[in-house]
Amino acid sequence: MITAANLESQKSKELAQMAKEKGVAGWHSMRKDELVKALLKVAKQKAKAKSGATRKKTKATAKPTRATKSTAASKKPKQSDSAIAKKIRTEREKQENLKNLSSAVGMARRNTPPEKDRVILIVRDSFWLQAYWEVTRATVQRAKVAMTGLWHNAKPVLRLLEITSDGNTNSVEKVVQEIEIHSGVNNWYVNITEPCKNYRIAIGYTAPGEKFHLISKSNQVCPPPGSSPEGEHWTDITNDVEKYYALSGGHDPRTVSADLQEVFEEKALQPMNAPAFERLGSGVNANGQRFNFQVDAHMIVHGATDPRATVTVAGEPIRLQPDGSFALRLELPDRRQVLPVVASSRDGTHQRTTVLAVERNTKVMEPITNDDKT
Asked: In what helix (H) or strand (E) does residue 201 lie, and over which residues does it extend?
């Protein structure tokens, strides 16, 4: 530290050299006491400048530290909020998927989504019914819009309805079971305790304390008394399709359902033995009092292979006869479709593929009416 005593103890020549090095103006003409005063002044100015620079540096260093802490504190809850929001979104998506009845796998033996909503009820035995349904995406979206704020708590359900008569021509439907279902399936087995009664299934959405949002109702069935339980797969039905079709009311003109017949024909890959006017629908009068005309077309795919082989058509396995032959009836919609037919040997070492490309183009001409001539 430079003090007055230190400077006065030095010679004038040494003080002049110091003043020169410190850049003191006019040092060469100053006396010793003047050199001491000038050097003290320079020392004080430098000490003051150094102290100010240190304070600025300390202040500048402290500010980023506080800012960093503030930023870290603000970021921490944001990260936590983001994780919670992501978890909520994931749970909501899961719930939405469970409600989506149009997402069932393998709804029908075709490569396109269903074009309409339908639910059928099949009698498996005296105490078991099988419900099968198809629901379009548009219907699920309409249900969501119709239920608005209630959709969040809505659940897809099957309602088993018991049909009774009030003594007149009107029938009364009473809910005897409500079964909560979910997406990803389109079959459900329903246990009943009282056979020999008339039942049907309704599918739709319900919310706590609110009205049932109906999507579709099934055909009417009447389970017979005393039959033994059967298998639980479509294979069992297709092996004896006429039996299950009749048990499910397929030949009863009072309860016949076009959807029931369509689904049975799709699953069994064969036409049902119903009268022609029933297969065409309610627009055809069996007595011929109206002049109606309807034309449709299907296609038959048939062939033969090793009886032990596996054959698929458009990815769906088909049943072979004991001699290895097969035949199946398929829909022929108005469009082009490509159907790969694949046969695989039992040991998997051989595979043969035939691709069928089929196109249907239907044109309905204008009707012609001739005046009666007398």
From this structure: strand 198-206
